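REQUEST FORM: STRUCTURE PREDICTION
Request ID: SP-0412
Submitted by: Lab K.M.
Chain count: 1
Length (residues): 361
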Amino acid sequence: MSRRRKIGIIIICLIFGLALGAAFYSGYRAFYANKGPEAFQILAKKTPKPDLTVNPLDGTEVEKSLANRHPLAIVIENHPDSRPQIGLDKASIVYEAITEGGITRYLAIYGPRDADKIGPVRSMRTFFLDWAWEYNAFLAHVGGNIDALDRIPVEGALDLDQFGLGDKAYWREPQVGKAIEHTMYTSTEKLYQAAKEKGFEMTADFTSLKFLKKLKESGTSQTIVINFSSASYRVGYTYDPSSKTYLRSLGAFAHKDRNTGNQLAPTNVIIQSVERHAGTTRINEDSWTFDTIGEGKAYVFYGGQKIDATWKKQDLKARTKFYDSSGDEIEFLPGQFWYEIVPPDVFEKVKIEETPNPSAS
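STATUS: Completed
RESULT:
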């Protein structure tokens, strides 16, 4: 076959294909025209927009079916051998407080956002119970000090202790050279399934904070430093105007999630001054208790702004609220919260540097 003939056949095929396509499109239009204008919405209906509403934990928009899912409170450790942790970025709220020996530990509150791996999970303390009660949260932990464990059944807390659930909701990932206590993990899916099997109420019932609808851009950038104890527990936050979040550091390094590699970056940072008292439990464990009920000083940070605040908590199950110098309840930006719970002597030494932010309008 000659080259000219081949080219002719290709051209004829192209013309035939275009004609066939045009005919098909014309028929398609005629078919849907006969069925009325609503027919042209069929394709759009195949991918409906998610039904969103406000998450009462952190004010962000989430799928309506998950917005009022019962909160989970998970105790996560912060010993250097446990770092970097997994799943803190998925929590709506994180509390950090000293346990014993100057070591801080986290209570992470989860709601609409799932995390397929969270940990390492560690033991309960009484002050974590106090904050978990603000959400009537399910309690996920690996045992605890006896004073905390004594309170759980007496107060009727919704307990998901690993000692009772075992591998139904938790698993270990042993690592060479790492102590066994740094190897326990869980997931939101496993914990919610365990709660369901226990017959726990799956719908949230707690008091939400107030959230801002619009932020007035701050004219400053901020760096915050909290010295809990040793250098390994030095916490830093640097405000990032582009994301309106506070980039978190721990020790001398950016604090990142082990799975994603992303730096933890809450939207709201609260530094709360709370009196604490050393003591021993009935089985002679060293223990700290915190005066979580009452009122005291606090700093609230969001959007590059610093608010000198007062915190108030009326009783065990009441939500801690924050008020400005005029006595008005503070409204927060929608986004993740980090509460840094510190004793008064640490609070007085918190370092806050504010510099002009040229990008602010």
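NOTES: The mean pLDDT is 90.
Reviewed by: T.R.
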